[in-house]
Amino acid sequence: MIPRYSRPEMVAIWSPETKFRIWYEIEAHACDAMADLGVIPRANADAVWKAKDVEFDVARIDEIEAVTKHDVIAFLTHLAEHVGSDEARFVHQGMTSSDVLDTCFNVQLTRAADILIADMEGLLAALKRRALEHKDTVRIGRSHGIHAEPTTMGLTFARFYAEMDRNLTRLRVARSEIATGAISGAVGTFANIDPAVEEHVCRKLGLEPEPISTQVIPRDRHAAFFAALGVVSSSIENIAIEIRHMQRTEVLEAEEFFSAGQKGSSAMPHKRNPVLTENLTGLARLVRMSVVPALENVALWHERDISHSSVERNIGPDTTITLDFALSRLTGVIDRLVIYPDNMLANMNKFRGLVMSQRVLLALTQAGVSREDAYKLVQRNAMKVWEDGKDFKTELLGDADVLRALSAEQIEEKFDLGYHTKHVDTIFKRVFKD
Amino acid sequence: MIPRYSRPEMVAIWSPETKFRIWYEIEAHACDAMADLGVIPRANADAVWKAKDVEFDVARIDEIEAVTKHDVIAFLTHLAEHVGSDEARFVHQGMTSSDVLDTCFNVQLTRAADILIADMEGLLAALKRRALEHKDTVRIGRSHGIHAEPTTMGLTFARFYAEMDRNLTRLRVARSEIATGAISGAVGTFANIDPAVEEHVCRKLGLEPEPISTQVIPRDRHAAFFAALGVVSSSIENIAIEIRHMQRTEVLEAEEFFSAGQKGSSAMPHKRNPVLTENLTGLARLVRMSVVPALENVALWHERDISHSSVERNIGPDTTITLDFALSRLTGVIDRLVIYPDNMLANMNKFRGLVMSQRVLLALTQAGVSREDAYKLVQRNAMKVWEDGKDFKTELLGDADVLRALSAEQIEEKFDLGYHTKHVDTIFKRVFKD
Amino acid sequence: MIPRYSRPEMVAIWSPETKFRIWYEIEAHACDAMADLGVIPRANADAVWKAKDVEFDVARIDEIEAVTKHDVIAFLTHLAEHVGSDEARFVHQGMTSSDVLDTCFNVQLTRAADILIADMEGLLAALKRRALEHKDTVRIGRSHGIHAEPTTMGLTFARFYAEMDRNLTRLRVARSEIATGAISGAVGTFANIDPAVEEHVCRKLGLEPEPISTQVIPRDRHAAFFAALGVVSSSIENIAIEIRHMQRTEVLEAEEFFSAGQKGSSAMPHKRNPVLTENLTGLARLVRMSVVPALENVALWHERDISHSSVERNIGPDTTITLDFALSRLTGVIDRLVIYPDNMLANMNKFRGLVMSQRVLLALTQAGVSREDAYKLVQRNAMKVWEDGKDFKTELLGDADVLRALSAEQIEEKFDLGYHTKHVDTIFKRVFKD
Amino acid sequence: MIPRYSRPEMVAIWSPETKFRIWYEIEAHACDAMADLGVIPRANADAVWKAKDVEFDVARIDEIEAVTKHDVIAFLTHLAEHVGSDEARFVHQGMTSSDVLDTCFNVQLTRAADILIADMEGLLAALKRRALEHKDTVRIGRSHGIHAEPTTMGLTFARFYAEMDRNLTRLRVARSEIATGAISGAVGTFANIDPAVEEHVCRKLGLEPEPISTQVIPRDRHAAFFAALGVVSSSIENIAIEIRHMQRTEVLEAEEFFSAGQKGSSAMPHKRNPVLTENLTGLARLVRMSVVPALENVALWHERDISHSSVERNIGPDTTITLDFALSRLTGVIDRLVIYPDNMLANMNKFRGLVMSQRVLLALTQAGVSREDAYKLVQRNAMKVWEDGKDFKTELLGDADVLRALSAEQIEEKFDLGYHTKHVDTIFKRVFKD
Known about the structure:
Chain A has about 425 residues and is mostly helical. Chain A folds into three domains: about 1-95, Fumarase C, Chain B, domain 1 (Orthogonal Bundle); about 95-345, Fumarase/aspartase (Central domain) (Fumarase C, Chain A, domain 2), CATH 1.20.200; about 355-415, Ribonucleotide Reductase Protein R1, domain 1. Chain A has helices spanning about 10-15, 15-35, 40-50, 60-70, 70-85, 95-135, 155-180, 195-205, 220-245, 275-290, 290-295, 305-335, 340-350, 355-365, 370-390, 390-395, 400-405, 410-415, 420, 425-430, and strands spanning about 140-145, 145-150, 180, 210, 255, 340. In chain A, helix 8 (about 195-205) links the parallel strand 3 and strand 4 (about 210). The first copy, chain A, starts with 7 loop residues before the first helix and ends with a helix. Chains A, B, C, D: Keywords: Lyase, Purine biosynthesis.
C-alpha cells in the first residue's frame, strides 16, 4: 500500500483492529451457536460478549504472538484476558484457524467490495451528469488517432458510463463471489463442529455458508474477485487515456481541473499536465498485477497449502485500496474536467472540411456519377485542401463538374453536423434507460 | 493453435469458411432491414439471399484481398461474383468494416462459449458420478501436504464439482458479456445507417445490440470474457494438481486410466505417468496467458485503434480451442480415473493412528485432564509411534495414565472413522442440491 | 502462429521437417561419439549417416506415431526404415526422449535467436540512418503530452537506437541462456551414457553441454529467454506509440509510408492510419504474454514433469515468429517513415513562444528581478498569448518592465533554438560511439 | 510491503530518510560540478556541504510538500533551511525534478541489487555445503512424480546451485542495467546544464551516465531489472516445490528445521508443515507479479509521461524487499534442512526393485534375447512384484528363463546403485568448477 494512493475508509478495513474485531465476532457468534446446540454452556457463550465493546490491544496481541508464533492463538489468549480464562475456555472449540482467517478475509473483501460499489456509483453519477451536459457538444470522432466523422462529447461520456455500468455489475458479481464463510474444521468435514455453527456465524456476518470447503474456502472465488477488479482497472485506464489525449497540447479539447492557486499555472499556461490521469494509468497497472497471482493461487495442494496466504496479505489490501483510490480520483477528474468546445470545433475543422469527403463521395455516386469519376472529383478538390490549405466546401461549390451532379444546397447539406448527431437521443435512451 | 490440443468442432468456429458465412449473414440481414426501412430496394435485399447456400471460396477471396489489401472489400467483391454486381451494389451500405468484423467476432465467441458450457456440463456430470461413487471412500485429508484428518474421496470430487459449477455460472456470464453486436458506422453515431438495422441483424444472430459502440464494440467485454476463461483454467489446474499428487509413486491413491495395450505398462507397472494432468497443468497456463493482453486491449485510443486486433486473432481461437480441449481431456480423466481405496487406507495408516492424536488430546482435556498433562500423555505415546513404529491406539490402551481418564471404549471411539464422515451427506446435499 | 504475422525463415525453424532433421543430427552425432568410445560398433554409427540427405517423411512419422503414441519412437522407427533396422539398432542407446527433445528445442531457439539478432541489427541500421538524417530537425519535446522544450527528431531516433542496442545485448545474452544441450539420461546421471557423448553432440550442434541437467534442461534458462523477448517487445511498443502519436491528425509530424497506389489515399488524404504501428502495439502484447507462463514453467516436480511442454509447443514458435515479424515490420516503418519538419515547427509554435516562458523566467531572476516579480512579468505576457493569441516574444519586447531587466537582444536570445540543440553532437557521440 | 516479509537493511533503502539523503548528495555533487565549470560560485557549492551530517526531517518536508504540492521543491526548501536560503540559491539550477528522482531511484535499485547479490551468494554457499554433504546420499530420481532411476541428494542440491549461480549472473546483469544516472534537463537535451555535471554526479554515486535520456531514464532498463527478479523468484519456487514434495507425509525425505520448543511438535510429530517453503511459493508469485507492469511501463509518451511512477513506488520497494526476504528465508531453509537418507532408501525400495526393470530389460536384449521375449520376461516378474508384493531381484534370480540369458552375478549387478552414481563427481566438477 502506498499511503498517497489510499483513502482512510478502505485502509481501515485492513487494519489489525478491524481484523481482530471480525475474529472476535466470528468466535462470539460461534459460541452462541454452540450454546444453542447444547455443545457448550450458555453462560460461557454469554461471557464472550462481555468483550463486546473492547478495542483489542494490537501491541499486546503481537507480544503474545512473538511467544506463541501463532496469530489466532495469540488473539484467543488476549481475548481470555478480557473474558476470563475459565469463561473463555470453550471459545474456538472444534474450529481450525482457517475457519477464522478465511471467513474474516471474506468479510473484509465483502466490505471492500461495498466501498468499491459505492465508488462506482459515484463515478457513474459524474459520468451521467457530464454526458447530459455535453450531449450536443460536437467533436470529431477518431479512429487510429485520425479524424473520422463527427460525434459528441456526450457520447464519449455516455460510453464510459455504459462501460462502468457493466463494471458495476461485475463488482456486484465479484462481491457475491467472495461473500461466503466457512466453519468446517481441519479438512472441511465438520468432524468437530456442527454445520449449524457455520450457518449461524455466516448469517450474523452477512455471508453465505460455503457449500463445501476444505481447510480453506476455495480460491477460485478470490481469483474471480481479483479478475473482476482487473477489468475495472482496465476501464479506468481506458478513460484516463482518452483524457490524456484530449489534454495533449495539440488537441487541448479538455483539461484536468487546475485550481487557480496551483503554482506555475499562469506563467506557463500551456503547461498543465494531465498528471491525475497519467497516475490513473499507472494505478490501473497496479490493480491489474494482482490478477495473475490470484489465478496462480487457485491450485492448492490437497485440502490446502498456505502458498496463497502471503499473496493475499499483499493483494487483499493493496488492490482494493488502490482501486478505491483510483475510482475516487477518476470521479474527481470527471466531475471537474474542463471541456473546451471551441477547441473541439477548431480541431474538427483543422483540415477544412476534409472529414466530410466520404459523405461527398457517397452523394456523388448516389447522384449517378460513376465510382471512378466521383473519386476523381473528390480527389482533385481534396488535394487543393490538403496541399494548398483551401476550404473543401468552397472548392466543391466552385467545381462545375461537382455542381453538375449536386446542387449547392445538396453540397451544403453534406457539411451539416446534424446529420451526425441525429441518433444521439436514441443512444442516450439505450444507455441511461430513462 | 496446436493441432494436438484441439478438437474439430471448436476449430471449425474459427475457420475462414465460418467467418465468411457469418459475414454473409450479417450483410444479408442488414440488407433485409434496410429494405424494410425503404433505404434500399427490396429486390436487391432478396438478391443477396441467392448466395444462401454458397460455400464461399476462401482462396478466391484471398486472391482478391492480395489486390485490394482489405479483407471486407475482398469478401464483398467475391459476394458480388455470386449475387451479381448490380444486385449487390447496396450491400454494406452505410456500414463500416468493424460492424462486420466485431459482430462476427462476437458470434464466434458466443458459439465458442456454447461449446465450453456444454464441455463444462459434461465435466460436471463426470464429477458428480465419481463423487457419488466414492462418497464413502475414506482417505486422509491433508493440509500442507501433511496428513491432517480423514475425509472421503467423494468429498474431493464434490468440491471439484462445486468449483466447476461456479465456473459454469462464470462461463454463462462470460457468454452474455460478449453476446452483443454493433452496426453503428464509423464512429458509432449511426450517421449513415439506421439503428433498426443493428437491431434486426442482432436479433437474427442471437445477439443483443450494443447499447453504445464507437467504431468497435467496447473491449471491456472481451477482457471479462477471457478473464473468466482464465479462472476456469486455474480450476482445471487445481484438479490436475490433485490427481498428479494422488498418482505419485509414494501416494498412489489414483491413476489416470492406462489402456491395457499401452506400451510399457506391464513391464514397468510402477511407471504410469500422469501425463494427461501434467499436460492440463500446462494448458491451464496457456489459457491463462490470454488474460493480461485481453486486459491491455481495453484502453483503445478515442473511437478505436486497431492494436487489439492482432491480439484477438491469436487469443480468440487459441484460448477457446485450448480450453475446449482441456475441459474435454479433464472429463475423460475424471471419467476413467482409477481409484485405489486400499492405498488410501494404507496411506492413512502410515503413521499408525497418529493422525488421531489431536482427537485424543481433546478427549483427555474434556475428561478433566489439564492441558499440560494431556499434552504429555499424548506426546509420550506419540513418540513411541513416531520413533519405534508402534501403533498409537495400542499404546494408548496400554497406558495406565491414559486409561485413568478415558475408558478403552472411549479410546476406541476416537479412532472411529465414522466420526469424520458423519456430515458427508449434509455436504453432498448442499453441493448437489438434490 | 498467425500466418499474416509470420515470415518464412522463422516459420521454417519450427517445421516438423526441421525438427526431425535436428533429431536426426543429434542421434547421428551421438552414435559417432558412442562409436568413438567403443560402446557401439563404428559401422553402425557410419550407417546412420546414410540418411544424411534424406528428407524425412512427416506424414509417415505421424502414421507411426498414431500407433506407438510416442513421437521419438515413431521417428526412430522411420529412421530405421532408411538406415536399415539392424544397422539402426544402436541409435538412441542409453538416451531418453528428452535428451533429443530438449536439445532440439534449444537448437531451434538458438537459431530463432540468431534471426532475431539479425533483425535487431537491421533495425539498428535503420534507426541510425534516420537519426543522422534528422539530427538537427527541431521538434518540440513533450512531457505528459504537453509541450516542454525543443529537442530534435534525431535525438528521438537516437534514443530508440540506444534502447534497441541494449535489446541487442539482451538478445545475445538470451541466446547464450538457451544455447545448451543435454544427453544425460532419464534423471540426468549419465547412468546409461557417457558424458562424452553429450559433449560431442553439443560441440557439433554449436551448443554448450548443460553442466547439470535432470531428465530435462532446467527451465530457468527458457524463462530468462522469453523474459528478454518480452523486454524487446515492450521497446517495440515504445517506438510504435511514439509514431502513432506523431501521426495523429492534430500532430502530424510523421506518417507511416503510404504507397501512391494505396486506395483512398488521395480522396481522403487526411485519413492515413498508422495501422502498422498499431499492429505492432498488439504484437508486443502477444510477445509479452509468453513471459508469465515461461516463468511458471520453471518449477517442475523433482527431476521433471511435463507441464512445461504444451506451453513451449505454443510459445516456442509463436513468440519467436511474432517477434521476428514485428522487428521486421518495425524496421520497414522506420526506414520509410515520412517526417514532416514543417509541421514540427508549426506545432512548436502553436502557443507562439510560450514554451520559452521558463527560460525567460530564469533570465529575469538571473538579471536580478525577484522571483515574485519575475513571475508576474512572465505571467502577464503569457496570459496575453494564451488568451488573446498574441506572440510571446513580441509581447515581451513591448513590455517596458521586462526591458528594464533584459535587453531586446537578450530576449531574442531566449528564443534561439540553438540553445537547445548545442549538445546534440555530444549525445550522438555517446550513443553511436563513432 | 508486508512487514513480516521484510528485513531492515532492504527496508532502509526505501525509507524517506535514505531517499532524501540521496537527493541531497545528487544536488550537492551537482553544485560541485557546476562550480568547477564556473557556472555557479564555488562558495555556494561548498555551502551545500554544510548539511553533510544533517538527518533531514521527513515530517518537516512533508509539511512543506503539503503546501507546495511538489516533493522536490519541498526538499529544496527544507535544504535551504539548513544551508541558508541565499547560499542555497543555485542548488538544482538547470535541473529538472526527474534528474533527481530517476537518478535516486537507480541508486536505490543498485543498492537493492547489491543486497540481493549478497543474499544469492549466501544461498549459493548453503547449497554448495549441502551438495557436498549429500553428494552420495542416494535417492530415487522421479519424472512425472513417478520413480525413475536413482540419483543423489547432492545432485539435487547441485542443480539448485547451478540454477542459482545463473541467477547470480542475472542479478549482476540486472544491477548493471539500472546503474545509470541522468542530469539532462526537461527533455534530455542538456539545454540548461552541462553534461559534465551528469558525469560528475554519476561518478560520485557509482553510476554510469545514461548515454541518452529524455526527461527520464528509459524504462526498458527497469523492465529488464524486474524481469530478472521474476526469473530468480521462479527458481526460488522451484526449490520450494522440491522441498514441499520431500516433506509430504508419504515421502518424508526431508523436513524444514523445526526447533525443539516449537509447539505441537512432539504430540503430533507427523504434523510438521513445510510452511516456510509454502510461504516462499507465495512470495515467488508476489515478486513475479511486478514483471508485467514493469514491461507495461516501457512505452511512455514522447519524452515522458508519469504513468510509470505509481507503479514504481510500489514495485521498487515491494519487489526487492520481498525477494530479499525470500532469498534469506530460503537460505535458512537450505542451511538447516533435515535430510532423511533412510527414508530415501525406503522410498526407493517401495516397489521392491521395480525401478531397475528397464536396466534388466536392456541387459536381456544386450544378452541376445529378442525385444519381445525380453519384455515378456521382465513383465511376468514385474507383475509378481506389483501384484503380490514380491521382490523383483529375487524373482528374477528364480526365473530359469532369465537365468539362461543373465548370470546371477549379472542380475545382481543391475541392482548396483554405483552404476547410477558413477558420474556424480564429473557433474560436481562441472557445477562447482573446483
